[in-house]
């Protein structure tokens, strides 16, 4: 009887430990990302009166050198005095950074992705209250042998206006760690590929940061020293 009871207790403890591991594994990546930053962001179309929409990305992420997996927290914030109404946040990957999932969001069909991007998700919000923010856990892979960028546009519900866009902004490191379990990457840093003779960055993508979103006719814009560049929707 005592032996049976001990086995039951041991089994319960093991199950509890396993559950704790699952919970912790889902949050560990986000907890180690440092403060959020709006680096590479710029207001584009005029938002409704009293609404101030911005986004935040972590200052640093960590890429597993074997699986190439990483976790990114993307946050949309309303710093205004009035509720936003229906909006959507897009999470788009470029070059070596591929977005594989965004919690609670829908994948953008391949034919509707911005030119030059490899993946994307659309996160719809019925409303974002004044002073409130909403964070999304993003799963991604990063090919450390290439450069990698991410882009966060915030739009109205039908995508006809872009109120704010962060990026495409790079994550990267000038000091790769090929022999370590993971490589830390910093926001706003061009990646030096982890490869022999990797002194020169490979040129990936179309070489421009202004990219239209296919079917919705949405234009992603990039903030730079000369201001905001626009491009027309690409031909069908």
Description of the molecule:
- It is a single chain.
- With 236 residues, the chain is mostly beta strands.
- It contains one helix and 17 strands.
- Strands 2, 4, 6, 8, 9, 11, 12 and 13 form an eight-stranded antiparallel beta sheet that branches. It has a five-stranded antiparallel beta sheet with strand order 1-3-5-10-7, with no helix packed on it.
- A hairpin with a 4-residue loop joins strand 14 and strand 15.
- The N terminus and C terminus are likely disordered.
List the defining traits of the structure above.
mainly beta; five-stranded antiparallel beta sheet; 13% helix; disordered N terminus; disordered C terminus
Please sum up the structure shown.
By secondary structure, this protein is mainly β. It contains 1 helix and 17 strands.
Spell out the helices and strands N to C: HEEEEEEEEEEEEEEEEE
Q: Helicity range of the residues? A: 10-25%
Largest sheet: 8 strands, antiparallel
Based on CA atoms alone, the radius of gyration comes out at 20 Å
Poorly predicted ranges? 1-31, 197-219, 221-236
Span between termini: 73 Å
How would you state the average pLDDT, rounded?
Answer: 77
* SS strand fraction: 35-45%
> Helices and strands: which structural class?
mainly beta
Give the CA-based shape: globular
Number of strands: 17
Number of helices: 1
